[in-house]
Amino acid sequence: METEKANKKPVFSFLAIVLAVLVFATVAAHFFKNRSSGLVGTNAPPIRLNEWITSRPPDLNGRVYVLEFWATWCPPCAQSIPHMIKLSNKYKNKAVPFIAISVDRSSEPVKKMVQDKSINYYVGMDNGLSDRYSVSVIPSAFIIGRSGQVVWQGHTMSPDFETAIVNALNAPPPRDSGAE
Prior knowledge:
By secondary structure, the chain is α/β, with parallel strands linked by helices. The protein has two domains: 1-35; 38-170, Glutaredoxin (3-Layer(aba) Sandwich). The protein has helices at residues 2-35, 75-90, 108-116, 129-132, 161-170, and strands at 51-52, 65-70, 98-102, 122-125, 140-144, 150-154. It has a six-stranded mixed β-sheet, with helices on one face. The radius of gyration is 20 Å and the shape is globular.
């Protein structure tokens, strides 16, 4: 009888931990969802990185581009990679660069994941850019419009992510403020 009680304690402890993690994840997701438009309508901070795992992206001025912050140790980030690859392929002919900035501390696992997952978009290492984008949860994605402003913020697996790319591409080009 005593042995049965002792064997149930680890199970209850495990279930309590799982429940706590689920509650935390739900609260965090709700918090992020309510903050998800924090940078929309503001000028996107420029991308200046010290290390690129892949080649550097082309000049982004006047282009729509996707920027995602992620990490190799983040399961939702890894799950979104096939989706990002698919969309990168789909919008390549529209010249929409997809850029993933890893918040990993070392570039070695990032290089391995880029190779193992056949990542076909631009990948660089974070050196403070996530702070300038106020990233508090990963993965976090941003769509930057031709005007250089953030037009969408959220998760790449969000149902409105691709719609936001299309909307950014269909938006009228920015007015040339230097012309008289």
